[in-house]
Amino acid sequence: MPRRTVRTAVTFCAAVSLAAITGTASSPTPAPSPTPTPTPTVQRQAGRPVMVDCFWHAQVRPTDFILACGDGNSRLTSLRWSQWHRDSAVAEGFNVVNDCKPYCAAGKFHSYPVIVRLNAPQPWKKHPELSQYTQLSLVYTKGKPDGFGQWVDLPLWN
Q: Which pTM was predicted?
């Protein structure tokens, strides 16, 4: 490559780099993003606790809810809420659980009727203006997964 072409290329790259640095340094600081507003469903239920799902979304009276976020091997389905109060909530539905036999990828899902109770509302760390249920109890009404008791208490994430 001729000497002049190399010098021109180096000069051009230096000028572009200097312009990029100067442009970045003098760019206006972006405005802070506004605090996300709760979903319309949550706004309608203001003052009542929410359930926080695996994707950190506030849920009010969800019909389905994943209990095992990592692998989806346990979830609640067909939930019908009879109560959703400031202290507790109650629903009937099904706990669909993978038996993981012989291992989870080859396992089969089984559905067990349950009564779901939510309680122990606390301020939600992500949105302290909302409270979230932090405790979930399942009562199996017909059959239950192997190794489970008739009543199971689970903490909900925050």
A: 0.69
